[in-house]
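Example S7 (structure tokens).
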């Protein structure tokens, strides 16, 4: 559909079902979610695969919508999308998992035509932060300010400067893992770049470049902070939750998908050992 033109949607065939689908992807393979000319994106690869595999007769008929539009380099363990297709429940996930070895379709459930995929009950992000000689006690101290209703103007991109922009954050928690820390942020909705800015705020406080009092004032909307963005590669959309229950589940991975995962894992192992060897030369 072109903007600025009169558009009459095609009637929905009686045999078509609207599906909510749980899916994931390795963000390193894509330039983000949204279609961009000449670039490999999740949306572009997905729509091309849907038509190629005859899941839908055309990209427009899919009426594809996604819960969260991730940036370049950001991965998803469990994003969610809605699409319309004539396929049966038995064929749906099998066909979707044939689109690409970089995309995994995990579960599905039928929804009404009025269902809005972006109106999720909760989104959960996790950020994998390497140790880098951090003082993670300071990180936990700073994280206490980020529960409840906060002004996110210092913690998002492209937001107005004069008027507070509030978001409810359910929790920010941390768990140590080998070689670093996992930061989990739970909220019903996020502004663009919010988790990566929060991670950057923790780094700035840990490094002594931002005081705890200024961080608290920014959360309360009393001051604006200019923060960098944490790297996208550490961010994973961990889950998107809905009141609905998943009724169809994928029993994969397929052999093709498993072979791809093994190849990727082997490549990472080789690269890690090469770097370790070079650092001791």
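Recovered sequence:
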């Amino acid at each position: 559909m072109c903007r600025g033109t009169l558009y009459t949607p095609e009637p929905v065939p009686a045999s078509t079902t609207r599906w909510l689908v749980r899916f994931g992807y390795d963000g390193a393979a894509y330039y983000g979610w949204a279609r961009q000319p000449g670039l490999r994106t999740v949306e572009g690869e997905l729509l091309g695969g849907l038509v190629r595999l005859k899941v839908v007769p055309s990209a427009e008929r899919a009426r594809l919508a996604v819960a969260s539009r991730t940036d370049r380099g950001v991965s998803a363990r469990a994003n969610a999308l809605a699409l319309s297709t004539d396929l049966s429940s038995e064929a749906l996930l099998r066909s979707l998992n044939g689109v690409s070895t970089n995309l995994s379709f995990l579960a599905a459930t039928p929804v009404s035509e009025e269902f809005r995929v972006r109106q999720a009950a909760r989104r959960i992000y996790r950020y994998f932060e390497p140790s880098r000689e951090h003082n993670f006690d300071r990180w936990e101290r700073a994280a206490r300010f980020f529960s409840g209703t906060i002004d996110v103007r210092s913690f998002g991109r492209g937001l107005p400067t004069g008027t507070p922009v509030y978001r409810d954050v359910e929790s920010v928690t941390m768990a140590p893992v080998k070689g670093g820390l996992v930061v989990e942020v739970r909220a019903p909705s996020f502004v663009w770049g919010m988790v990566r800015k929060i991670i950057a705020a923790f780094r700035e406080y840990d490094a002594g470049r931002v005081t705890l009092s200024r961080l608290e004032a920014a959360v309360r909307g009393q001051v604006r902070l200019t923060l960098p963005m944490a790297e996208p590669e550490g961010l994973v959309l961990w889950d998107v939750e809905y009141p609905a229950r998943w009724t169809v589940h994928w029993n994969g991975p397929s052999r093709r998908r498993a072979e791809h995962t093994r190849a990727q894992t082997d490549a990472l192992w080789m690269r890690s050992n090469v770097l370790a060897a070079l650092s001791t030369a």
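Notes on this example. Confidence is low (pLDDT under 50) at residues 1-9.
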